[in-house]
Amino acid sequence: MIIAVVTFRLPKPITLAEATATFKSTAPKYQGLAGLVRKYYLLSEDGTRAGGVYLWETRADAERVYNGEWRKMVEAKYGAPPSVEYFESPVIVDNRDGSISVAA
Question: Which CATH code, of 3.20.20.450, 3.30.70.100, 3.40.50.300, 2.60.40.10, is assigned to 2-102?
């Protein structure tokens, strides 16, 4: 499993309510996306940075999505280019279903 952390600076601070409304408008684009296991939207406490934490089956799945078109969409919607960092996720603890998963 691969975790991608996507962040970007906002041109001006936004409130949690504003972020929630905006994020809800983009959330359907990620439903059913091949290789995406889970996405968490992020907003810094001061409202100046936003982004997401994505859990992907593979890095190739993530890179297929984080293409030039996606980067342009993020910059147009939020006013700043995104930064993407990748991390291996060899073990996942899920307290909701009581499981511990180990990547193959």
Answer: 3.30.70.100
- C-beta separation of 51 from 7 below 8 A: yes
Beta strands 83-88 and 49-56 are unpaired
pLDDT at 35 over 80: yes
Q: Collapsing DSSP states into helix, strand and coil, what is residue 91?
A: strand
* Residue 96 CA: distances (Å) to CA of 15, 76, 92: 29, 36, 12
**4-22 pLDDT, tens per residue?**
999 999 999 999 999 999 9
8-state DSSP, 46:
T
- The β-bridge relationship of strands 91-94 and 99-102 is antiparallel
Global pTM value:
0.89
